Amino acid sequence: MKTYQYLFGLALSTIFICSSCSKDFLTLYPEGNLNEGTFYKTEADFQQAVIGAYVPMRDIANNAFWMDEMRSDNATYDYYEKDRGSAARENISTFMDDATNGVTVIRYQANFTGIARTNAILDHIESASISDSMENQVIGEAKALRGHYYFDLVKTFGGVPLQLHEILKLDDAYLPRATADEVYTQIISDLKDALNRLPAPKFTAAETGRINKGVVATELAAVYMQKKDYASAIPLLQSVTAMGYNLMPNFKDIFNPANKNANANKELIFDVQYQSGTTGQSSSFIYRFIPNTPNTTLFLGVNFNVNGFGGWDVPTDNLIALFETGDTRLDASVGVAEGSLNASQDFIASKLVSAVGYVAPAGVKAKYFCKKFYYPPYPNLNQNTDQNWTLYRYADVLLMLAECLNETNKPGEALPYVNQVRTRAFGNNTRNITTSDQVGLRNAIAQERRVELAFENKRWHDLIRTGQAITIMNAYGITAKAKFPIYYPNHLTLLKTN
Amino acid sequence: MNKSLHRLRYKELLCLLFLFSLCILSNAQNETKISGTITLSRSGDDLTGTSINIKGKIEATTTNSKGEFSLNAKLPATLVISRVGYNPLEVPVASTEPITIMLSEGNNNMNEVVVVSYGTKLAKDISSAVSTFNSSKAKDIPATEFGQKLQGRVSGVQINMANGRPGQGIDMRIRGAASLGAGYQPLIVVDGQPLSGSNSRSGDMNVVNPDDIETFTVLKDAAAAALYGARAANGVILITTKQAKVGRTNVTLDAYYGWQQVPEKGRIGMMNANEFATYMKGYYEDKATYEGYTGGIPADYADPGKYGEGTNWYDALLQKASMQNYSVNLSSGTEKLSSSSTMSYFDQDGVLANTNLKRFSFRSNNEYRPGDRFKIGLNLAPTYQLELNTRAFTDGNRQILGNALAASPLQPIYNGVGSYNSKASSFGMLNLNNPVQQLDLADANAKTFRMLGNAYAEFAILKNLRFKTTMNGDVASFQDDRYLGTMYGIGLGATALPRPASNSSASHSSYDYTFWLNENTLNYNLKAGRHSLDLLAGYSSQKWSREFRTINGSNFANDAITWISGAAVTTGSTNKEAWSMASYFGRLSYDFAGRYLLTGTFRRDGSSRFGPTVKYADFPSISGGWIISEEPFFKQNKVISFLKLRASYGETGNFNINNYTFVTNVAATNYVIGGALTPGFSLSPTLGNPQVTWESSAQVDIGADINFFKDRIIFSYDYYNKKTSDMLYLVTLPYQSGFTNMQMNVAKFKMWGHEFQVSSRNMVGAFEWTTDLNLSLLDNELTELPPNTPFIGNNTTYAGFNRTVLNGRIGQFYGYVFDGVYMTQQEFNSQPKHSTSTVGSVRMKDVDGNGVIDANDRTLIGNPNPRYIYGIANSFRYKNFDLNIVCYGQGGNQILNVNRQDITNLDGVMNVSKDAINRWRSEANPGNGLVPRTRTGTTELYRLANSSWVEDGDFFTVKNIALGYTFKRDLLKYVKSARLYASVQQPFVFTKYSGMNPEANATKDDAVTAYGQDLSTFPIPRTFMIGANFNF
Fold first, then answer.
1. pTM score, two decimals?
2. Exposed end of chain B (fewer CB within 10 Å): N or C?
3. How many domains does chain B have?
């Protein structure tokens, strides 16, 4: 009987209970994700947030070669007549891009995504209680990343809005464009702070990919060089030379995924990290660089269709001609595929040959391709490779240092650094540069950078940085137009950049 | 904590129901049996089914096949006798003497009982905009979806057959409803239960078995719909399913069989083999002339004369498809118990080969009435649906249908006997695989199991005070499995077949959702003198949650195992989402002297989708009616037999956004450090907005209902004006924010229109002829844009075809203005040019007048919103024959024929439409001035969205013609009644549109980003059908 009374009481109160519990009833948070209210509390949260802030570098690397190499005289593309969906990428190469270009937007967006992630870390860490050493590491990495993203932006797009705090409301998202100088001031401030907080490189496998003092010093030097402040760059670069970095003995081993870890390769300073497999971390650069073909077996050892996907970053004649005889870097950087067109007018490769001294035999369809990141065999997974993307390596530092010394009127001091790079390239020191003329050395260093760092997304920025872009690209445009009549459009004028 | 609270509440509800079932009250004493016979004035009508109520009581019965009835009542009593199509009668009964009464024919719709929000009402007492439709009038229309039966029947309701996919074609829009990102589909309420669905939008209406439906009520204005406040902004369709009639036991069998066929008209005219070879030969000739091509004419095209028609790939995909439906209903009603169960089997082949939908459905509706103060009901409707290739591969951008248009007519379908010629491209074309083979091998299976159930108990606490509690459940389980094997190759430039087995992949996606809704209402009515008052108060709570998963497998060893168990690499994920809502609501209806009507409603809704401080919103409404014809001063006259004016104002809400947008999510974003996968987290691209809250629409409606000539002609008119403010919109954030978008309440939108509905009994007597006609005029305008948003729409080259601008209609077409071809060098030199232009290339208008053609010269080029919608239904009856003709039309809108994106591709990589033969080839041979040249690098502009894609969308379609014959009862021995019929669905389509289906709409339920586009639409068949209805 008591039970009945209880039940009856419950029944009567149903209607009222509904209203009393509705506050909880209407409070639902996602179970599949964390949210801002619950995250950014513990050391682990911040460590994970920093990891998340590295990720946009991949979007940039996956798209940067269109803007940094194909826009320059280093690379062009394999015109694939049947698929015009990728015209936006070609337009970058032919200076026909505009503000609606889908590729340039990706880079702009990815940089700011990275910046927003670092801003969230830096804003939240102030109120979090975590150890000083952890705070140093987290702030150091976050500021280094923010500086890195802003440097990529300012190099590529000029002055951009300076978003330095987490967006909390709509108006925060509409800050006006800052000047390039203001952006550089912020970058230098972030990188200097990071330099003080972060440890020196330890060259352990476990630290591979993580930002350290070597990365920040190199990047900060590059920032100074961009501002033509060579004197400020020199001590930073010199400090890097004392950190334990070394050139790999063989040029062709630098990018081999087998040598991707810091303990195995002391030349690498900062790489965007990838991992093949099903973890969602893979890269697909080589699929972009081999020619458009319905069958990749000859190239990759596995068969996929790259029609419409491949054929980018194709070495230009202009670049190939620049390699001196005996330079091992030509064979390491440029490949040639011979083959023929099938009934669908698609390229089918029959053999891969060396680019050294190559002249296509009559009747053979030959396609040049960027071979620098070509390390077969590949896993039998479409567009899924282990290849990292290098942002800074020691040879770059040596050439940067040589350039700074030369620009500060110390050509003699510059020579050993250039020649370290050349000695490796030629296998001996017989091809070393000896000129002490500042102008002559400037040209020699520029050429050295071009062949050493071809396809590493340096060329276009070097042209802009050294003020040569318009002269060189206009001259290149005339020859390119003569060679490729498909550039039908009635102008191939260089758009002004910077 | 939350969970346990909820569990507790379930228990309490169960207890409540249990207690009610204990509260069986004894029957009232002193009841006597009243009996009688009701005959009908129109001969030939089945006498069964006239309903008899005792005024003021729940008890009711209906007549049997001889017109007889009996029921128990306390004398004296008043019997209310009513029947659809006849004038109702109230008969006082004081003795047990059997009564005999003849009901006279009437068309007095005003005395029909109409299902409205949370109850029923006599039509004459309704002061808001409500339309009803009895499903029996559309029983001859074969329907996978109930919307097909409703098409053309109700003013203000735009129903389009957007595509011919079995079970997925219907697109519904009430009063031009639109929102910026939340869809326009109305809320569907079945027997008081709002349907949910697999996504966060309004319910998936597809699974309601059209055979189960008895009536539709469309709640159009805010006052009618406001009691469904939270989810009613797009209008509400109330569906009542078949209930058993008291005093009758019926077994009915309905069956039909149909043949579906795609009409010839409107099929896209691609080149045949001879034409295509000629075109391609010319293509290479021009390439040699202008581009230094030295390869010679490829062998495939060198001798066009050797080809005839070649392969018509599109036609080869089509089949004459069958469609069949069998439905058995058993219903029985006594004074205490009524029960109706329907079991149906529906099987439809698509008109594309290898597509099919099968549906097994069951519904059981039961009500138990132990006494006159208590009733309890239980309805259960499980459905199981199997679909083959209706959700993937067939239609849409560059799927099999699109590939068939692109494929080379030079290639045969088969090599010799029965073996496919896998290749469907000729020299220089993008590789295309045989679309017929692709369709035959397509393997996408979807299975849906869904169960709707509801239980209710109604209890008369006092004479005029009733309490009702209902518990509704909607659970479903969906699974979609696809296998893409070595012979899979859909798409332009697909890999030639066979692919390596390692390229094979399979996907599985599935979800389960549960939705429950508990509603508790108190209803009080009072009649004092000439005042009558009706009060309703209620509380409801509901929760929807869905668990979903995807599994992908790749690198299969071979095609022998098509399940993911055969894959070497497997990835997958599971997740969950949920929303909940709690609401209070009330209604007060007041009626003075049957002349002055006033109804006010109020609803307060709280939703989990909004932030802590803004969860709740209020949705009030008020409506008034004046029945002038009841006024003493209104003289009885022969012209006007009924006249009512009505006006209403109300607010309704919309919460159709993603769950959890009030908070910024932090999602896993992993990276590799030290060569190892390292877990990372980062903010999701949608910035949380704790201030986001309900979208609200305020709607004014003014209307009149007028009956003429003793109700021979019924007319109704409505004007509405609906203003939506605080529209829910994902405001795009600038890239500099690092976020993509943010859900906000922004922008204002307004819709208005006029609706006319006329129903006329043109001829009565032996030959009967009735006409129902409706016409809606409508328009809309965006009156305020979201902040920092110059327009709404996508700005990309290949997809941004719809754009909504300030003070413009929603979703207008956007593109270049086509202006012919640069015919001569002189013309080329003197005209504005695009960077790819040359003499003979396409000329677009320099809209901004800056002398250069570029993306800034795109402009608004058409309107996808119909300006008028109309429907005409005629039914004729002579002796035992009946003939019904239903027509539907709309106009004032345009269609964007997006097919032209591919069929005008002049790069020699796919088949082209026939008009390419008239292209520019030289100044001496310039073609018709409408088709540009084929020179490499100059052709893209011609296939970007432009005004040559825009076509007039007006159409008038005879939707259905059905002829039936009813057998006389005395001719049949075992059957109470029998009827045979034949019908044609979609017999005639009158339109200037060149494509197949003027109702096409590539994306349903989206008026903003992709509205009014025809893109490789699954063709709509013409269906011939025979059917029979038996009543045992």
1. 0.85
2. N
3. 1
